[in-house]
Design brief:
The protein is mainly α. The protein has 27 helices and 5 strands. The protein has a 5-stranded mixed beta sheet, with helices on both faces.
Length: 745
C-alpha cells in the first residue's frame, strides 16, 4: 500500500501544474453526450419553456417564475434554475437549445467536479475513471439534454461537496457555511430533494474534523440554520406577499410555497398520495402510463426514418398492449415495485445500476479492516461520505411511492465515485495478492457483467443478441483469466484489467447515447432504445424519435386522419374514476387526452408531419399551435388581457411559447389547482380580462363549479370557425374540446 500511496503522490504532483491529457477525451465525451443535437429540440419541456418565455417579459414574472405572461400561476418548482435558463435565453435568444444549455453545461461540470473530488484523495486514475463513469451513466446525459432541473441540482450539490471537503482540509469554518448555504440554494431548485445529501454532510464533518464535540455541534448547528434561512428565503418572501399581488403558487392547494415544498414536492413523493387531482399519484400515473403505452403502440404503425425503427415496429406489432416495461409489475412510470431490489428491476436498472455490483465490491474493499472507533484515513473518511450519500438515496428510491426515472441522477455521483476509487483500490489489492481481498476485483467484474446481461435481456428485440452475449462472455472470460493469473505480474495482466473496465463501460456508453440515436423525451427523460417514449421501459414500441407526448401522451388538439380502429384506452386497474383521467370526462368509456383530444387521434406520423424535419417539437407537450384558432382569437380580441383561458398547462404552453401572449391555465399544471372561483372569474370577465375559454375533459378536479358556470353562461363558437382539420396543423386546442365566449356587463 505504501508503494501505491507513493505512486498516487507522484501522479498528483506531476499532474498538478499541467492539464491531464487523459481527462480531455473524457470531457469531450461528456460534451458530446450532453450537447450534440440539443438544437433539434425546438421547445424542450414546453411547460418550463413557456415559463421562461413569460419570465423574459417582466421582473415580476421572473422573480415568481410565472408560467404565463399574465402572472396568473407559477410553475410547480422554485425559480433558481429557471432564472438561469431565462438569463441564458436573454443572452442567446429564446430557443429550445438556449434553455437546455445550462443543464448540459452542468452535466459536463459534474463530470469535472467528480474528477477533482476523487483525484485529490484516491489518485489521478481513480479520478479519471470516476469522471468517465459519471459521463457514461445513462440517466446523466438523458436529463442534462433537457430543461428539467435535476442536472443543475446535482452540479450544485457537488459544488457544495467541494466546499465541504475544502472546509475539512483547511479547517476553516467559512467553507462549512458556504457548503450548507449551497444546499440552501439547491433547495430553491427542487426543494426537499436537495436535502437527500444531508446525512453525508453531517457524518463526514463529524468524522473528518479534529475539533471538540462542542465545536462540531456549534458549527453544524450554525451552518444548518444558515442553510434553512437560505432555503426558505424565497418562500417567505412569496408567502408573505398578498395573494392578489403575485401569481398563484402552482400545484399547491393553499397557494403556499412551503406547502408545495413539504407536500406536493415533499412527503407526497415518498407516500405516493396527494390531493392535487382528487386521486393518488399512483392512480394518475397508471392512467398516464397506459395512455403512453397506447400512444407508442399507435406510432409503431408509422413509417420510420431508419432500419432500426423498422425492426422495433416489427417487434411491437406482435405484442399485446401493456405498460412499458412489461406490465403492472413495473409500477407507475416504469419505476418498479417498492422493495430492497427495486434498483435492479427493469426500467430503473438500465438508467443507473450498470456498475452497482462493482460498487458493492469496491465498498467492501475500501472499508475492509476499518475499526469503528478509528482512526480513519482520508480515503476512509471520504469513502464514508460517498456511502452516506449513496445509501439514504438508494433507500428512498427503493421505498418511495412516486418519482420519475430521471430522479435517479441523484445516485450517479456516489456510484461514479466508488467506481473510480474502487477500481484503483481493488486493482491494488489484486496486484499485491492481499488475501481474500485480491478476489474482489475478478468477483466484481463477473457479477457486474452478469447484471448487465440481465439489464439488457428485455431489449433483445431492439439491440440484438450479440452485445448481450458479448458482454456476458467477455465478462466471464476476463474475470476467470484474472483469477487464474492472480500470481503473475506482467504487462498482459495490466491489459486484461483495462479490458475488463472497457467491457463494463461499453453498454452504459451505448445506453448514454440512446437519446441522441433514438431521440429523447424532454418531459420524462430516460435512456434506452425507447428513450423517445418518455417511459423508459422495455420493450421499445416507439418508432419515431421525434415524437413525444405529455408524459408520453397525446398532445392537445391532435386530429390525424391515420387513427387506428383498435386503439381504445382501457381504464387503469384500480382507478376510482371509471376510466377517466383524473378530473376528466368520459367519452363512451374512452380515455380523454389532455386538452381534449380523443383517443382515436394519434401523433402525426413521419410521412405526414414535421417529424422528419431538423427540428423536434417534443417537450412533453407538442409545442405547435392550431393556427386557425390563433388567427380567430387574435382577430376577435378586443383588448382582453388573456388571449384565452383553458383548463390546464398542456393546452396553454404552446400558445405562450408561440406568441408570448398571456394564456390562462385556469387549474395550473394538471388542471386541478383550486385557483379560480366563480366570483373571481365573473370579476375578471367584467373587467375585460378574458372572454374566450377552451374546455376539454381535463382538469375538473379543483374547478368543477367554474367549468359548469362557463358552460351555462357562454356562447359556443362553431368549430368550423377555429378548429383545424389539416394534418399539417394538428396541434393546439381542438380535438374534442369546445371554444366558448363569455361577455358580462
Amino acid at each position: 500500500m505504501k508503494h501505491m500511496n507513493s505512486e498516487v503522490k507522484e501522479e498528483q504532483t506531476s499532474n498538478k501544474k499541467r492539464i491531464d491529457l487523459f481527462l480531455v477525451p473524457i470531457v469531450l465525451i461528456a460534451a458530446f453526450l450532453n450537447l450534440f443535437k440539443i438544437w433539434t429540440d425546438e421547445y424542450a419541456n414546453a411547460y418550463y419553456t413557456a415559463a421562461v418565455k413569460s419570465m423574459l417579459q417582466s421582473f415580476h414574472n421572473f422573480f415568481y417564475a410565472s408560467f404565463d405572461p399574465g402572472g396568473y400561476v407559477t410553475i410547480d418548482k422554485p425559480p433558481v434554475v429557471f432564472w438561469i435558463q431565462t438569463i441564458s435565453a436573454k443572452i442567446f435568444g429564446f430557443h429550445g437549445w438556449s434553455v437546455i444549455l445550462p443543464q448540459a453545461l452542468a452535466g459536463i461540470g459534474s463530470v469535472l467536479l467528480l474528477y477533482v473530488l476523487v483525484k485529490r484523495t484516491f489518485g489521478v486514475w481513480a479520478g479519471r475513471f470516476a469522471a468517465l463513469a459519471m459521463a457514461l451513466t445513462p440517466i446523466v446525459p438523458a436529463v442534462s439534454r433537457t430543461n428539467n432541473i435535476d442536472s443543475m441540482l446535482v452540479f450544485t450539490l457537488l459544488v457544495a461537496t467541494w466546499m465541504l471537503f475544502r472546509a475539512v482540509r483547511t479547517a476553516k469554518f467559512g467553507w462549512v457555511l458556504a457548503a450548507f448555504a449551497m444546499i440552501g440554494v439547491a433547495f430553491n431548485m427542487k426543494m426537499l430533494q436537495a436535502y437527500m445529501v444531508l446525512p453525508a454532510f453531517y457524518v463526514f464533518y463529524v468524522v473528518a474534523t479534529k475539533i471538540t464535540w462542542k465545536k462540531k455541534i456549534a458549527f453544524l448547528t450554525t451552518a444548518t440554520v444558515l442553510m434553512l434561512a437560505v432555503s426558505v428565503s424565497w418562500a417567505v418572501v412569496v408567502d408573505s406577499t398578498s395573494a392578489d399581488k403575485r401569481p398563484y403558487m402552482g400545484s399547491s392547494q393553499t397557494n403556499s410555497v412551503l406547502e408545495l415544498a413539504f407536500g406536493y414536492n415533499g412527503i407526497n413523493r415518498l407516500t405516493g398520495n396527494t390531493s392535487v387531482t382528487g386521486s393518488s399519484h399512483k392512480q394518475l400515473a397508471q392512467t398516464q402510463q397506459q395512455t403512453a403505452s397506447s400512444e407508442t403502440k399507435q406510432n409503431s404503425n408509422s413509417s420510420a426514418d431508419s432500419s432500426q425503427s423498422s425492426n422495433q415496429r416489427k417487434s411491437s406489432s406482435s405484442q399485446k398492449m401493456q405498460a412499458p416495461g412489461g406490465g403492472n409489475q413495473n409500477g407507475m412510470f416504469n419505476t418498479g415495485n417498492p422493495g430492497p431490489f427495486r434498483l435492479f428491476q427493469k426500467g430503473l436498472s438500465d438508467q443507473i445500476s450498470w456498475l452497482l455490483p462493482f460498487v458493492i465490491f469496491s465498498i467492501v474493499g475500501l472499508f475492509a479492516g476499518v475499526k469503528f472507533k478509528g482512526p480513519y484515513t482520508t480515503k476512509q473518511k471520504e469513502s464514508l461520505f460517498w456511502l452516506a450519500w449513496l445509501l439514504p438515496v438508494a433507500v428512498f428510491f427503493s421505498i418511495a411511492g412516486f418519482f420519475h426515472q430521471y430522479y435517479l441522477i441523484m445516485l450517479a455521483p456516489p456510484i461514479a465515485a466508488f467506481a473510480g476509487a474502487g477500481a484503483v483500490a481493488l486493482w491494488s489489492m489484486y496486484k499485491q495478492h492481499n488475501g481474500w481481498k485480491s478476489w474482489l476485483l475478478p468477483g466484481g467484474i463477473l457479477t457486474t457483467a452478469a447484471l448487465q446481461v440481465y439489464i439488457m435481456s428485455p431489449y433483445v428485440s431492439s439491440i440484438g443478441v450479440a452485445p448481450i452475449a458479448g458482454v456476458g462472455a467477455l465478462g466471464v472470460i476476463l474475470a476467470l483469466v484474472l483469477a487464474v493469473r492472480k500470481q503473475r505480474k506482467n504487462s498482459l495482466t495490466n491489459y486484461l484489467g483495462a479490458a475488463a473496465m472497457v467491457v463494463l463501460l461499453a453498454m452504459p456508453a451505448y445506453w448514454a447515447m440512446t437519446p441522441i440515436i433514438y431521440g429523447g423525451n424532454s418531459m420524462l427523460p430516460s435512456a434506452g432504445p425507447d428513450s423517445s417514449s418518455g417511459m423508459g421501459g422495455p420493450p421499445s414500441t416507439a418508432t419515431n424519435s421525434k415524437q413525444s407526448g405529455f408524459n408520453g401522451m397525446q398532445p392537445p388538439g391532435s386530429s390525424s386522419g391515420n387513427s387506428s380502429s383498435n386503439n381504445q384506452m382501457q381504464p387503469p386497474s384500480g382507478s376510482s374514476n371509471g376510466g377517466q383521467m383524473p378530473g376528466g370526462s368520459s367519452n363512451n368509456g374512452q380515455m380523454q387526452m389532455p386538452g381534449g383530444s380523443s383517443n382515436n387521434s394519434q401523433m402525426p406520423n413521419s410521412s405526414s408531419s414535421k417529424s422528419s424535419s431538423s427540428k423536434r417539437k417534443s417537450g412533453g407537450m407538442n409545442a405547435e399551435v392550431n393556427q386557425k384558432l390563433l388567427n380567430y382569437l387574435t382577430k376577435n380580441n378586443t383588448g382582453e388581457k388573456y388571449l384565452f383561458a383553458t383548463t390546464d398547462s398542456t393546452s396553454a404552453a404552446p400558445y405562450i411559447i408561440k406568441t408570448g401572449e398571456p394564456v390562462m391555465a385556469m387549474g395550473g399544471f394538471s388542471g386541478s389547482d383550486p385557483i379560480l372561483t366563480v366570483s373571481k372569474l365573473k370579476a375578471m370577465i367584467k373587467k375585460g380580462e378574458v372572454k374566450y375559454f377552451y374546455l376539454s375533459g381535463m382538469g375538473k378536479g379543483g374547478q368543477s363549479d367554474v367549468i359548469t358556470w362557463i358552460k351555462e353562461n357562454s356562447k359556443e363558437i362553431p368549430s368550423s370557425k377555429w378548429q383545424s382539420t389539416s394534418s399539417s396543423a394538428q396541434q393546439g386546442p381542438s380535438g374534442n374540446g369546445t371554444l366558448y365566449e363569455i361577455t358580462l356587463k
